[in-house]
Each structure stands twice: as C-alpha cells, then as structure tokens.
Amino acid sequence: MTVYKSISEYNLHSATLSAAQFFQEVAPAQKPIVIRGFVKNWPLVAAAQKSPNAFVDYLNQFYQGTKAKMLVAPPAANKRFYYNEEMTDVNYLSGEERVDLFLGRLLELIDRETYPAISMQNARTSDILPGLVQDNQSDFFPHIEPRLWVGNEGIVSAHYDGSDNIACVVAGRRRFILFPPEQTANLYPGSLNFTPAGAPTSLVNFAQPDYERYPLFKQAQAAAYSAELAPGDAIFIPMLWWHHVESLSKVNALMNYWWNGSSAPNAISPSPIDSLNIALLAMRDLSPKQRDAWRCMFDHYLFKQGVDPASYIPEHQHHLLGDLSPEYITAVKEYFVTKLKQ
Fold it and tell me: N or C: which terminus of the chain carries fewer CB neighbours within 10 A?
C-alpha cells in the first residue's frame, strides 16, 4: 500500500485565511494546500449534506432548460474515464443532455449494485444554472466564473491544468493524489494531441500499476501527496501539478475556479500547451546536443534562471521581454500567422 505525503492545511473552522493572504503568500509559493471549510457556508453544501434528493432539488431550482455535456462510462470501465484498451478512442460515451434528467438519473443509480459512471464535467454555471453562483459566492473570486462537475463514483486519471486551480467539494467526498511538475516523466504522460479530457493524462493505472512497463512510477509515488476532502473543503492545485481525482460517493459535486495561465480571463493566445506543440514541431529534427543548447536559450530568455535579460537591455528594446500593448500583441500574432503558413 502506497503511503503518500500529507498536504498542508488551513482549517477555517478554527482559523482565518483572507483573500489577500492567499494571493500574496499562499498562491505564489506554488505548493498545494487543503482549506478545510472553505465553502462551508454555501447553501449548496448545506443542501447536499441533508440528502442527495435535497441537493438535486436545490440545483433544479436554478435550471432553465439548457443542455450540458455528459459522460457515461460502462461498468466494465471500473469507474475510470480513460482510453480504450487499444488507445484508439476513449472508453466512455459523451453527448448533451438536459441537466434535470441527468440529475434524476444520478438519483436512480444510487441503489444499483452494477451501474455506469456518469458525469457532467466542466459546465459553465451561468449557462446551465443561472443564479447558482450568486447564491453561493466566494469572496476570493468575485469576478471569476466557477465550473461545475457532478457525478457518481468515478476516476479521472492524473493530469495537469494550465492554470492555478481551487477545487471546492460541495457534495460527497473526493480523494486527490498530487505530484509536483518535476515528476512529469515518471508519470509516463500520454499524447499531447489525443487525450481523454483535454489535458495529457498519465498512462499508469493507479489501481494496478504495471511497474515492469512503467518502472519510474515508483519514484513518482514516493514524491506524491494525497488528501481526502469532505463537503465544504477545498484544495489549491498549482499550475502544472499533476492530480489524480477519485469521486468516492454515489452523488458528488465540485465547483472549481481557474485563474492565471491559459484559463485566465485575460490570457493571451497561444496557450503554453500550444507553444509546446509549436516547439515540438520546430525542434523535432535537432540533435540531442542542439536541443540542449536551445534549453539554455529558453532558460535564459523565458525561464530567467540566471540574470534577467530585461535588467540589462535598454527598455526601448525589450519587445517581448517588456510590457506589451494590444497593438504589439496583434502585430506579433500576425507575424507568426504568416510564418506558419510558409
């Protein structure tokens, strides 16, 4: 049995954590934390703690008929939304459904011994349940629209987000297993361009790791953190931290907030993952030594591992190293559009 490291915690049942403290001290450290009781006062959480029916009734009062994307994985998938055996497709079906019908189905499956894993994922609350956020507000994120995830027992394999993330459990319980970015290679990520849910996913089955095929996964496990969250609790998952998520209840829900990075309201395209794909295209035929030389360039200009180049280059020649006007950003994009068409 794997013994995971514990994640640092704030307990808001007995202490305080201000938004200023979080954004000035906690988030910049880019280390995960659990915030117990972060949304304990939300009516949504109170309804879920009464009963599954009360939770569904509470959500349905905001519903106005818009369909949302749903996933259904058969019992043979063992609750895991993933690839099929040949990695030619995924092991679940997806489509759009009325939210009230989906929630009714969720209740119907509670007493079944054999049942599919069903999930409504990454839904914009303003689209499907207008008014829900106004009734369940966070002082930390007054201007960011959260996403809603609802389902029964299910497993989302280890993946990363291109933005900082606070995930708030509002119904049921969830178990999170987190890995720092430096464990990326040891998690054996799958394709950048064909993924089960949008982000590259670890190919290791955590329930039955194949150590012969994925021997470095033992190193990832030794560096992993884990926490189990109850309704009202939240977890801060920094950008590019891998997270494996298990929904442990037959009715569970999560609301999350993404900010910074590719999910920020003011994010500039291309996204970092787009840039990675472009770099793979541009450098695929270089030799190992040539790639290592380019790593030095990236370390200097982009990652600023030594002296900051903006500190010694005259400000009027900073270009992409400095402040960017909307006009300059547009000009740079147009330049690359032309280059990529050649």
Answer: N
